[in-house]
Amino acid sequence: MIPEGTFVDLHSITHLALGANPFYCDCSLQWLADWVKRDYVEPGIARCAEPHNMRDKLLLTTPSSAFQCKGRVSYDILSKCNACFTFPCSNNGECEPIAERQYHCRCAPGYHGQHCQYMIDACYGNPCRNAGTCKVLEEGRFSCHCPAGFTGDRCESNIDDCLSNKCENNASCVDLVQAYQCRCQAGFMGEYCETKIPFCTKEYNPCRNGARCVDHFTHYTCECVLGYSGDNCTVNIDDCQSNMCQNGGTCVDGVNDYVCKCPGDFAGKFCEIAPMVAMLYPQTSPCQHHDCKNGICFQPMGSSDYICKCAPGYSGKRCEYLTSLSFVHNNSFVELEPLRTKPEANVTIMFSTEQENGVLLYDGQNEHLAVELFKGRIRVSYDLGNYPVSTMYSIV
């Protein structure tokens, strides 16, 4: 909510950036709608968010008579201005608003909790540990009811379940909560480490990529084939570390081998065969020093010059001009750098939408140009520094 008269001392104000504000457009905001029209202040694309009958209406173009107060304003709206509006603190606690529409309850003596809902007693602060349940006794005393696996006055002790463990084959016991775990020695497995691991069998062969498995009773080893390494032969050795690719060729790793991916018209196993044009004109090939901006250089057969093949959306002899761009996702926009090459430019917009209102193009800060879709019609407004702002509408 913006109080009436907020901008009364700002006599030279011409623009307000209000587009990101969700306005509640009832009678208390009527003054703002009247003021921007009367004093020719540009509020941008400020729109109403509530109430429902005013939703998505523009502050600048909505008639003053539409800003009415009907019925009670919801608690959600009122609490945006005062988080303590709903009196959330119990037992005479004092509510203090803080940042981000939050609040803090300052509790009266004898109470605690986020909303001062709990009375302070012997269980205040929960003296019971490990999820124990506190019970208030007489004379300010308490007792703790411990969950399974814990004991002690405050449930502070974990019962040692390893005292009666069933671990076998010299396995070590790890105490848990109302349980234990057997940590097996090398070569054994199972809940109690009772089973010897059947290394190198069809059911249990950890070696990969054609490696040979060797059983050593308590452990195993893998004899890797050429091109692999690692305990289980899972690592493909990078053969590109010592590659012989030439002329900017890219090395692609294989298994105990590699392939050179050649640039342009280079060929050969190691890209050692130069393209025909470069062999005929080794120092004077024009693509050796081209200036294609957003495309690739191409020299036609039999020509001493080159041409630039532009990427989609670019044109020009050197692909230096951006000619088109597009997007298909909802709630998207494109932001471009300011034009610096020429004082004028032609812009063509092709769009399809089911909405009656929206911004199509906006340029400038102090002197702006805006193209909008307003109630199904195209509206163009521009400001050259001589107020008021000029506005044009399409016929259909």
From TrEMBL:
<feature type="domain" description="EGF-like">
    <location>
        <begin position="158"/>
        <end position="194"/>
    </location>
</feature>
<feature type="domain" description="EGF-like">
    <location>
        <begin position="236"/>
        <end position="272"/>
    </location>
</feature>
<dbReference type="InterPro" id="IPR000742">
    <property type="entry name" value="EGF"/>
</dbReference>
<dbReference type="InterPro" id="IPR018097">
    <property type="entry name" value="EGF_Ca-bd_CS"/>
</dbReference>
<keyword id="KW-0732">Signal</keyword>
<keyword id="KW-0677">Repeat</keyword>
<dbReference type="InterPro" id="IPR051355">
    <property type="entry name" value="Notch/Slit_guidance"/>
</dbReference>
<dbReference type="InterPro" id="IPR001791">
    <property type="entry name" value="Laminin_G"/>
</dbReference>
<dbReference type="GO" id="GO:0005576">
    <property type="term" value="C:extracellular region"/>
</dbReference>
<feature type="disulfide bond">
    <location>
        <begin position="184"/>
        <end position="193"/>
    </location>
</feature>
<protein>
    <submittedName>
        <fullName>Uncharacterized protein</fullName>
    </submittedName>
</protein>
<feature type="domain" description="EGF-like">
    <location>
        <begin position="196"/>
        <end position="234"/>
    </location>
</feature>
<feature type="disulfide bond">
    <location>
        <begin position="224"/>
        <end position="233"/>
    </location>
</feature>
<dbReference type="Pfam" id="PF01463">
    <property type="entry name" value="LRRCT"/>
</dbReference>
<feature type="disulfide bond">
    <location>
        <begin position="262"/>
        <end position="271"/>
    </location>
</feature>
<feature type="disulfide bond">
    <location>
        <begin position="287"/>
        <end position="297"/>
    </location>
</feature>
<dbReference type="Pfam" id="PF00008">
    <property type="entry name" value="EGF"/>
</dbReference>
<dbReference type="GO" id="GO:0048513">
    <property type="term" value="P:animal organ development"/>
</dbReference>
<dbReference type="GO" id="GO:0005509">
    <property type="term" value="F:calcium ion binding"/>
</dbReference>
<dbReference type="GO" id="GO:0008201">
    <property type="term" value="F:heparin binding"/>
</dbReference>
<feature type="disulfide bond">
    <location>
        <begin position="107"/>
        <end position="116"/>
    </location>
</feature>
<keyword id="KW-0325">Glycoprotein</keyword>
<feature type="domain" description="EGF-like">
    <location>
        <begin position="119"/>
        <end position="156"/>
    </location>
</feature>
<keyword id="KW-1015">Disulfide bond</keyword>
<dbReference type="InterPro" id="IPR000152">
    <property type="entry name" value="EGF-type_Asp/Asn_hydroxyl_site"/>
</dbReference>
<dbReference type="GO" id="GO:0048495">
    <property type="term" value="F:Roundabout binding"/>
</dbReference>
<dbReference type="Pfam" id="PF00054">
    <property type="entry name" value="Laminin_G_1"/>
</dbReference>
<feature type="disulfide bond">
    <location>
        <begin position="310"/>
        <end position="319"/>
    </location>
</feature>
<dbReference type="GO" id="GO:0007411">
    <property type="term" value="P:axon guidance"/>
</dbReference>
<feature type="domain" description="Laminin G">
    <location>
        <begin position="323"/>
        <end position="396"/>
    </location>
</feature>
<feature type="domain" description="EGF-like">
    <location>
        <begin position="283"/>
        <end position="320"/>
    </location>
</feature>
<dbReference type="InterPro" id="IPR032675">
    <property type="entry name" value="LRR_dom_sf"/>
</dbReference>
<keyword id="KW-0433">Leucine-rich repeat</keyword>
<dbReference type="InterPro" id="IPR000483">
    <property type="entry name" value="Cys-rich_flank_reg_C"/>
</dbReference>
<keyword id="KW-0245">EGF-like domain</keyword>
<dbReference type="InterPro" id="IPR013320">
    <property type="entry name" value="ConA-like_dom_sf"/>
</dbReference>
<feature type="disulfide bond">
    <location>
        <begin position="146"/>
        <end position="155"/>
    </location>
</feature>
<feature type="domain" description="EGF-like">
    <location>
        <begin position="82"/>
        <end position="117"/>
    </location>
</feature>
<dbReference type="InterPro" id="IPR001881">
    <property type="entry name" value="EGF-like_Ca-bd_dom"/>
</dbReference>
<keyword id="KW-0964">Secreted</keyword>
